[in-house]
Every structure is written in C-alpha cells, then in structure tokens.
C-alpha cells in the first residue's frame, strides 16, 4: 500500500513505477518503499481535484456538512493515535511522547477547523455599508479552489493537518505532496479519507521527490493555490513557479529565532526553556530559538547550567523509554549539521557542549546536544538555520543591544523574551520583528493563534481563523436597489 498514490479516491501505483526507500533514522534500515510519483501522476491528481471542485458536491456542502467529515477524520486519527505515533517515530526519529503529542495535535486541528467550518454557515456573508444608499453590498467568502499542498518532514502528520484541515473546512479540494523522507503518516491519512468516505478527488496524495512531484504541482495550471512549508530556497522556487499563473501562495519557511534572557530571570527556568527551544524534536523545528542572548550578569551562570543539563539529555531510539533526543531525520541532514559544527570550529567558535556523534552509537543519525559560544555575528552558525540540536549563545549588555542583535537576521519567524519585569517583556515583544513572540517560554503552539513569519520566514499565516482565510476567496456582491433609472446616458 505504501508504494501507491491516493488519487480520486483510489490507490494506484505511480505511472512510471518508481519507488523511494523510506528509512528509519535510528537504525538506518529501509522500512518500506514509497511510490515515486512524477508529473503524470500529479497531472492525474490535479485533474481529479479540479473535477471534484468544479462539479463535485464538496464546495457546495454546508460548513456543518463538511465539519462532519473533519470530525470523522479527527476521530479516526484519535482511534489509532498509538499506531500513528509509533509510525511517526519509526520514520522521523522523534521521541515517542513528542510523536503522541503531534498526533493529538493533528486530531485537534481537524476538530478545531470543523468548528470553524460550522461557523462559516453563519459568517460567510458580511453586509457592507456603502456611502450611496441606493446600493446594498456584501462580502461573501467562498472556497478558493484546488490547493497544491507541499509539506516537510519535521512534523510529518501535523504539518499536513495544518493545511488539509483548513482547506477542507473552507471547501477546497487538495493535492498533497508530503516530504519524500516521511510520507507514511500522510498515506495513513489517505486510508482514513477512504474509511470515512470522503468524496473522491477531494483529497489526493502524491508521494515523490521535490523535483519530480513537488515541482510539477507548483507549475500545474489547474492549481489555484500553493500552500508550502519548507526551507527558504525551496520556498523561493515555489513562489517563482506559482508566479507563472499568479497563483495564490502561502509560505511557511525557516528561521533563526532569538531568545533574549534578561538578568532578572530565574536561571533554572531560563535553562529549561532554552533547552526546550532548541533540543525538542532534535532542534528540527522551524521556530527553534537557536540564537540565545543572555544579559551579561547571568551569562556565565546560565551557560554553566545549560552545558551541564545538555550533557544529561538521554539520547536514543525514539521508541526507547526515557529518550529525550532521537536521531536526525536523514543522512543528508545529519551530515549538514555536522558540517555546520565543523565550520564553526574552523571559524574559531567554542564548542561548549556536545559537538559530534554521541559515544556508543554505531548506527543511526545521532548528534549530541551542542552549545556554541564566542561566535561573531557574521559567522555562518549565527546567521544560518542549522536545523539540528545546535544552539548559539551570546552575551548582551542592555535592552537596546539585545533588540538590535535579535532583529539582525533575514528571518523573522519567532522570538522569545524572558524577564521578571512584565512591562519590559511586553516592550521587547513589540520591538522584535517576528511573527510569533513567546514571553517567559519558547515553542508552545496553539491551534487558535496565528502562525507565520516576518521577512524571509514566509508569507501569510496558518492556524486560527487566519489559517481558514488562506483557503477562502472574498467576493463582493453589490446590488442597485433603487427604482429610479441610472440616468447617465439615458436622461429621463
Ligand atoms: P525542503 O524545502 O527541503 O522541502 C519541503 C518540501 O518541498 C518537501 O516535500 C520537498 O520534497 C518539497 N520540494 C523540494 N524541492 C521542491 C521544488 N523544487 N518544488 C516543489 N517542492 C519541492 O524543506 P525540509 O527540509 O523538508 O524542511 C525543513 C525546512 O522547513 C526548514 O527550513 C524549516 O524551518 C522549514 N519549516 C518551516 C515551518 C514553518 O511553519 N515556518 C514548519 C516546519 C518546517
């Protein structure tokens, strides 16, 4: 089944018949082979989605009717949460409790957008007061059309849910291209769609590589919208491909997010949140707070406790009890991260903790929690997203310097600030140029709140009502209600 694509409600082999090895990053073993979809498969899937949108029942259903499907999907995810979580660990490497959390969040996302679909029945139309009272006008929100959704490997099912749930709630139809590294839970979503009798063509899943399956999706003329999550270089390509037909585009891209810790912070709380901000999911988190700025008076104390605690994190197979740091997702990412640490060493950066493969691991893409210090602000590790358990730590002297250093980045996805002084937290939160700012914490994410980046971290917002708006067009309907003639050409 994993080597098939889900198109128009049916499972079919890729037309060219290719497969992609799916690897368990903890053991480096091939788990199974996934279908290598290509442009012919994408074309077939997009046409199925187009027909389902243009002449199928889906966009014409009421929000409440669509909500029933969304809740059924949430129910099925919930029913198999343990199996899905284990599959996520086997394919992505993350510790099991994190995977369980992701699966619960994915189910929560479908339930949440079911609620917003129901609300659409009452709020899809908004009367507009116009100055000329002979007219009445209203704004009507309608489904945007066929969505091409492309997702990354760091939260395989959750990133899919963030796109599929609001798109379905809005009444769109979808072609989903999950990451070739982690396609398994997305394929399970296809099975769930089949089980709940989602109308054919509403959700299509084409696995395959970026160039072979992703690119044709971004270029397909029958796709109305591209919803992409991934790296900045790929986001740029997606935007350029979409520009050809002026497609609607939303991009959730990378980051190099700062965490500003003021001297009045509790040192133990600061260390715990710094660690959660960078070691959770092996640091493979778009919003990871990978640049930590610590006010000078507590710099040494925080660094000491951080290096001590980082060295204690239990590394292992995500399925093993007590594991808090699993392997990196793939050999390619593993080598990229080790390369970045090596480059830091050559640039004269101090490796204060970790910095390599943990002792005793003969297989699997494991990297120690790594703390770097003494880097310049133009060094590679300070400026570029490493996407691994690697944190850069730097001292600062005052609030103004902290804000300047924090904002000195081409990214602007997230930021965090910690202080006992609430007014200062609020002030700094406003000054930080980022789409998400955490106060006295880092990373907790809520389905109800907007998610997305400033600057090169992206365009648009996912989650909350902003996530639904991504998949809706706004139509103006204006009516001339007066009995009198218009009287421009034909005078009474
Ligand atoms: P990636 O850009 O390599 O790949 C993302 C997806 O794009 C994959 O499905 C891939 O197959 C596809 N792709 C690759 N080339 C393509 C092309 N030319 N045309 C169309 N599709 C193509 O990213 P990744 O390594 O999978 O994920 C890591 C990146 O994602 C990091 O930069 C991270 O910050 C970012 N990310 C951002 C968010 C967010 O919400 N902002 C969330 C998760 C991950």
Automatic annotation (TrEMBL):
Protein name (database record): Aldehyde dehydrogenase family protein
Domain Aldehyde dehydrogenase: 11-477
Signal sequence range: none
InterPro entries, A to Z: Ald_DH/histidinol_DH (IPR016161), Ald_DH_C (IPR016163), Ald_DH_CS_CYS (IPR016160), Ald_DH_CS_GLU (IPR029510), Ald_DH_N (IPR016162), Aldehyde_DH_dom (IPR015590)
Family that this chain belongs to: Belongs to the aldehyde dehydrogenase family.
Annotated metabolic or biological route of this protein: Amine and polyamine biosynthesis; betaine biosynthesis via choline pathway; betaine from betaine aldehyde: step 1/1
Presence of the UniProt keyword Cell membrane in the record: no
Keywords of the record: NAD, Oxidoreductase
Active site: 252
